[in-house]
Write a structure and sequence with these properties.
Number of strands: 12
Radius of gyration: 20 Å
Structural class: alpha+beta
Largest sheet: 3 strands, antiparallel
Number of helices: 4
Distance between the termini: 58 Å
């Protein structure tokens, strides 16, 4: 949820953009996750959606790899554009003004930091031939990594159990 007054208008970067209606001081909180305004969708639910919905999420949502979910905002952040020199910084849970922002300035972020799936800084946009296949691949790769991480967390418990069993014998 954007925490500052804003409007949506034509962007010189791409299509529509989100613009500040107020002065924003460097370091000021500009965005924070709000379950009321921002929707978090598990990738397995997203895979049940039609292709046009998958394309919308690839373009307008960001991927939270640790949770295997996509977050899409229902306010102006939906229209936030990428910049190689963004005026917002992202720490994963919040966005702050990287510098003073004037009324009328377009709010921008670095898509590679917020993991917008369709963005590839080397190619502009990475379009999958088959968007469903693309999401399925992400889901399978990340599911494999999550399982490996969970097994890795269980290894110390398993060793402790083996030691306890030996001491009981």
């Amino acid at each position: 949820m954007l925490t500052v007054d804003h409007n949506i208008s034509q962007s010189t970067i791409h299509g529509l953009g989100v613009f500040s209606n107020e002065k924003i001081a460097a370091g000021q909180l500009v965005w924070t996750f709000s379950p009321v305004v921002d929707r978090e969708v598990p990738i397995e639910q997203l895979l049940k959606m039609p292709d046009h919905v998958l394309r919308m999420f690839a373009r307008h949502a960001w991927y939270v790899k640790e949770r295997g979910t996509f977050v899409i905002g229902l306010d102006g952040d939906y229209f936030m554009n990428h910049s190689d020199e963004p005026n917002l910084t992202d720490d994963g849970e919040h966005m702050y003004a990287a510098r003073d922002i004037e009324v009328g300035d377009e709010l921008t972020c670095d898509y590679s930091t917020v993991t917008v799936v369709e963005f590839d800084p080397n190619k502009g946009h990475a379009h999958a031939e088959d968007i469903r296949e693309f999401y399925t691949k992400i889901f399978q790769q990340d599911a494999h990594q999550r399982v490996n991480a969970e097994v890795g967390m269980l290894a110390p418990i398993s060793k402790l159990a083996q030691l306890q069993m030996r001491s009981c014998a």
